[in-house]
From TrEMBL:
Keywords: Decarboxylase, Lyase, Pyridoxal phosphate. The modification N6-(pyridoxal phosphate)lysine is found at residue 232. The keyword Lyase applies. One of its GO terms (molecular function) is pyridoxal phosphate binding. It comes from the Bacteria. InterPro entries: Group_II_Decarboxylase, PyrdxlP-dep_de-COase, PyrdxlP-dep_Trfase, PyrdxlP-dep_Trfase_major, Pyridoxal-P_BS. One of its GO terms (biological process) is carboxylic acid metabolic process. It comes from Niastella vici. Its cofactor is pyridoxal 5'-phosphate. NCBIfam families: PRK02769.1 (NF002748). PANTHER family: PTHR46101, SERINE DECARBOXYLASE. This is Histidine decarboxylase. Belongs to the group II decarboxylase family.
Amino acid sequence: MNQLQAADAIRLKQYMQKAVDRSKYFIGYPISQDFDYRELYPLLGLPLNNVGDPQVESTYDLNSRSIEREVVDFFTELFNAPVKNSWGYVTNGGSEGNLYGLYVARELYPNAVVYYSEATHYSVQKNIHLLNMPSIVIRCQSNGEMDYEDLNQVMQLHRHQPAIIIANIGTTMMEAKDSVPAIKAILHNCAIKNHYIHCDGALAGTYLALLDDANDFDFSHGADSIAISGHKFIGSPIPCGVVIVKKNYRDRIGKTIPYIGTIDTTITGSRNGHSPVFLWHAIKRMGREGLKQRAINSLAMAEYAVQQLNSIGCNAWKNENAITVVFSAPSKEFCQKWQLATEGDWTHMICMPGITKEKVDEFLNDLMEESRLKTAMAEA
Ligand SMILES: *Cc1c(COP(=O)(O)O)cnc(C)c1O
């Protein structure tokens, strides 16, 4: 095979060095970096493809379906999905899982109104647009959680229509959790029998389900579908996710496709065959207990970060059971350096697994340096 030309080899080397450098200042997005999948390296030489339904074997046998099923089984159990009536697959990420949940919900209730809070991830609005569904945005409380009074009032006006509700299990900016029990109480109050609750657990769904007392959103609490991102809490070099739905809902979707010799029940055609193996590797290596400890460590790190930020006079807080620390946004340059997303006056740092105390301290020192500079400049 041809080698890269010298100039291209240099270009590649520079890019690769830049990626490594930028990974050192990465505290603003909910992405774990502490993975090691080198054992799986030989698989990068194979064109794995899980096209079609993971439960139905395909003529395209160079796949990781059997591994994918074990990953789905792990989440089915984690989210207390009905054993005989659940189904799922490994997606390209939380956004696709949200699209799938909404798609299934629309097939079930074509005349429904979708309700979602203003703090909801942008993928939901886009997916609603793609699916051409009527929707209403609900106000938020100041901590980013849905305003249930607003939901109740708006729903009262639409009692004659089925309701599809997106419950955020950790909003993107403040990691607020919408309460599935509160939403169910409102549905009951409005006497809306035809309803569907999709939980967007992309950010926090996995670890909240692992903790004792933090899970009021799974199938046993009334969820009809749950989407998570695999590259966030678990960690993966390739974005991925998992969606779990009730099987009788999925049955409304798939068509048998002779060309692939399986059922086309997913959103995309070709599907990543490598990402299920990454997730499987992490789940097997850490186990449920290991993953739970990982969550507990992140929560402790977030507590530490709040205390330290407050101790240097930075206005910082976090929601209950959250690993996202919200604080007043520093300068644009600082946010760029540390890859901090901002919204209005707020920004956040996220204590994902792999964010060590040393990393938090380095971040804090840098922030103190920045505020010293700012004060000095203001005085000059
Ligand atoms: C990250 C995120 C998503 C989107 O997930 P992707 O894996 O990036 O597609 C959706 N909702 C929430 C709350 C998120 O944090």
